[in-house]
Design a protein that fits this description.
112 residues, alpha/beta, 4-stranded parallel beta sheet, 2 helices, 14% helix, globular
């Protein structure tokens, strides 16, 4: 065995000792890493507008999370949710689109 020392006799301790040191795990600083962040999915019925407005009026704009809101509405009804929520939060409120990059501290609206 290379790097190993053999000891003989009635000495205390192990008979073979290897001086193998495991590399330390790298320290990861996530304070500026925006590639991983929580995404909260929020569902509401057609009557849930008031609750959504109340929720977003109490959330700080810098939670580090993305919020995806799905509200069930009649297909004949044009939602004003983007305008309603934009009055209640300083986070950007966007309509979710195919392949849109999700970012933290933003609200995304999905239609049913």
């Amino acid at each position: 065995m290379s790097g190993a020392k053999a000891t003989h006799g009635a000495e205390s301790g192990p008979h073979v000792s290897d001086s193998v040191t495991e590399p330390a795990a790298p320290v990861v600083d996530r304070t500026e890493d925006t590639t991983e962040f929580p995404i909260a999915g929020i569902g509401a019925s057609a009557g849930g507008s008031e609750s959504l407005e109340r929720l977003f009026s109490h959330l700080p704009p810098d939670t580090g999370m993305a919020f995806v809101v799905l509200q069930h509405l009649s297909p004949d009804f044009r939602s004003l949710m983007d305008q309603l929520l934009a009055r209640r939060t300083s986070m950007p409120v966007r309509q979710a689109e195919h392949e849109l990059a999700v970012e933290p501290n933003c609200v995304y609206l999905l239609s049913d």
